Amino acid sequence: MRKSFIGGAFILIGAGLIARLLGFIYRIYLSNLIGAEGMGLHQLIVPVYTAVVLTITSGVTIAVSKMIAEQKAKNNRASYGRITRSALVIVTAAGVIVSAIILFNADLVSIRILGDIRTRNSLLVLVPCLPAVVAAAALKGYFYGLQEVVPTAYSQIAEQTVKIVIIFLLSKDIIGEGAEYACTVATFSAAAGEIINLLVLYCAYRLKERGFVLHAGLGRIDIGTRVNGRAKIHLRKTHNGASRKGLTFKGAGVSAYMEAAGGTRKRNIVVEMLRCAVPVSANRMIISILSAAEHIMIPVMLSLGGLDDKSSMEIFGRLTGMVLPLILFPSLVTNSLATTLVPAISESVSLKNYRAVNYRISKSIQITFVLGIVFTALFFSYADEIGELVYRREKIGDILLMMSFSCVFVYLQQTLTGVLNGLGKQGVLLRNTIAGSLLRIGAVYFLIPIYGIRGYILVFTASLVIAESLNLFAINRITGLVLDIREWLLKPGLIGVIMVVIGRYLLYFYKIFFKEETVVTLLAIVTNVLAAAFFMVLTGVLKPKELISFYSRKQG
Prior knowledge:
mainly alpha; two-stranded antiparallel sheet; 2% strand; globular; disordered N terminus
């Protein structure tokens, strides 16, 4: 079995980088347009919206991904369409029901839950968007299960492009209209992006169903065709897939009428899907509710601590709408790994290839620690400079500095979530995540009125340390994976210390030759990262041959 897992992750990382860059352009432009208060109002909606969407979709996406990966391991191609269509029916029906509930209770949600009537219009804008979002999630599960990530990559880029275009076209109308109108426009752009995301995925799915594959080549990875040493993306008519009429083609390994040969029946598909999806969705629902409660409470507790409503919303906007996106930007790597880990681990477990399971887990954790430590050092060393570079009007350096220590564990959370979902250990994941969420909610209630946002950030980081330590030890118990603290943490940690030591010197050095602050900051960051990469290769933290093997070799 070729290592398409990491190849898919690589494509997702590349597409995610483009999508995140486009998203950053959108967010920076929007934040400079509407300010911290407007961003704070917008961020009030996000937790509720996310809670609703993830509750409906997360379980189905993972269930579809796991089920198709298992059928792929058995070469049972006839079941792919049945699994996906069943998922589409389930999530779309749920999306329509939830949309109707929001439509008829918009005032109640905006006043009683969000605590601000100005969010009402934004909620109404989201109503037609929800069915599209949940349907897209089912289609993503289909492509993730097949480890074909090109369609999802294209959909991400299309979504962000549409958001930018809309907010740019309506930017003149936003100025001077207040935070409520700006929030509504921002929500509208996000909703339009989600609908475009669905259309791209659905077109790709229909092409796949009709015998076409959106195919990409990437070096030695068997996901495309190499032409003159370069990657190529193209549409290709398949010749080895089974037709809908029951014909069998050479190399397919199965016929399209797998039902007679013990294939997956529709009724069994639904039962199995619900068996996998319900626990995941229940977990996500609980976690999302706790997260939404946490975010809604922050501006309220800041007000109780002595700040006026405007100042409270501004601090909330800086934390959730400006600093957290910066912290989460590098997570496109870990998020891509987590996305591909679920079907990859499920397929390997189905084949009883436990060596491949542990190898994938170990390397993914190592990459996560390296990434987290590098960006902790960068955000710590250049907090004020990065804040000024990205959000010129807003002073976020102090918040970014404090949040920098959470990077490792924010990224580790995503990777370990993918691992535990792939292993089918949603209960373990739920227990540990709830513990961390309850700790943060306690911090919001007790510490913010006394210590302000600093108290919350401290406990935020501590809760992640506790939750991810528990997840890591759980994986160790389940798989027997050796916890290689020396390679995962100590060596990258030493490189992180070196980055911090040379970080300020690089700023002073480049200021001798350049007067433009932007140029100085960018040069310092790039030089620091290159120096870190050099020391990582020198100390064996990064081993080029091993990384090449990780991307392309067979896992035995």
